Amino acid sequence: MNVSANGLAGLKVMVIDDSKTIRRTAETLLKKEGCDVLTAVDGFEALAKISDQKPAIIFVDIMMPRLDGYQTCALIKNNPLFRATPVIMLSSKDGLFDKARGRIVGAEQYLTKPFTRDELLGAIHRHVSTVSNH
Prior knowledge:
The protein is an alpha/beta fold and 134 residues long. It has a single domain, classed as Response regulator (Rossmann fold, 3-Layer(aba) Sandwich). 43% of the residues lie in helices and 18% in strands. The chain has a five-stranded parallel beta sheet with strand order 2-1-3-4-5, sandwiched between helices. Strand 1, helix 1 and strand 2 (36-40) form a beta-alpha-beta unit. The longest helix is centred in the N-terminal third of the chain and has 13 residues, at 20-32.
């Protein structure tokens, strides 16, 4: 799937991960595609930024201190303003249990780390309707 360079221009994407490496990798890949990237180190920081910035799609790591990815996703999905915002879970484990649990809290998709550029962009294209209309 080849996307024109400006297909994702200005699209707000949030990446929540306590790993600086993962945040930086995702940010670099997405900025190259023209996305406006917001990052947060955990769910608490993310929730404050989400209500402020209203990202179009959110990538959230499962294993984080304080508030894990499942709790963060559940809080996002319980807020009527953000219920429709796609949430993609990121995990270093590729377990069926984790995928099922992600679906229970309302996640749209599950990506195993390390993810590729195509997986990240594929998730955006699959779940953000404004992108596929370009």
